[in-house]
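Exercise 7.
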Amino acid sequence: MQYKILFVDDETANLRLLERLFRGQYEVLSAASGSEAIGLLELHDIALIISDQRMPGMTGIEFLKRAAELRPQTVRIMLTGYTDAEALVEAINSGVVYKYIAKPWINEDLQQTVVRALQHFETLKGQRQLQLQNERLRMRLRLMRDGLVNVLAEMVDLKDPLARRHSERVRDHSIELGRLLDLSGTDLQILSTAAFVHEVVDLRMPSHILAKNGSASEIENQLIRRSFELGVQMLEDLPELEEVVAVLKFSHEHFDGSGFPNGFAAEQIPIAARIIAVADMYDTLTNPRDAERALTHDEAIAYLIARSGRELDPNIVRTVSERRSAFIPATPEPVAIFA
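Solution. The predicted structure, written as tokens, is:
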């Protein structure tokens, strides 16, 4: 492959000299001004630019800044016969210029500099290709995660049509709580997805237990635990949802350590799981299967406060009780799934 090198100088004699020096080894392009060089950059994939600094209309640094925007991978060298240290230091520190060469140059030194600059170009190109591959991989993984989340939501919906809307409300409440608690963008994404599919871990639970209002019997508790274990095992087979599963494993843990399967307590439980526990209980109280049993917002908050320090994290309950905006009004439209 023959590299393309662009020389930019308002002095024709310098351009001819550089063309003769490099034309045999590389494809050489030349421009007498920054504006002319920009036109060439738009047409050609240039590997290396060597530009004079002092030119009328557009200085070398101004041109190279534009060149960096147009062709980020192109290596840029400043060629100057003037002592313009401040501008050069700024250009080098900002990454606009790879190196500068003082006039008059020594041909052998300039040729060696060009060889090293083109090696640097290859390194940059390789890094860019790797970056693009990683971006494509992340996109594919994102699409796979979104697809899996939608399939899981459909599975829950098929078993219990009311559960889908419940999951959407729990997700919306959880996101708002996460924002009030200053969760980062990545943590909010995991929280959103975990809240949306939190019912999946109980997908194998018998419907009559889910619909039951009173306390569960010992046999029913055993069924609940076993169903939960199977639900977690099913999700653990989906590596794309690893971070979400790490939250859902704690769905039945209580703040005071009285939950299952491991009896974890307080900070041992991820904050996302503690947030979902509060949002889930609030929505169950205000939107029960039997609409006549629905509690008002204030009644539901009073119930949460009564469970604070037991099943629920006191700090999160306090946030809900002090900030009505945490749950009122709930988002009327489904929020996009974060994965």
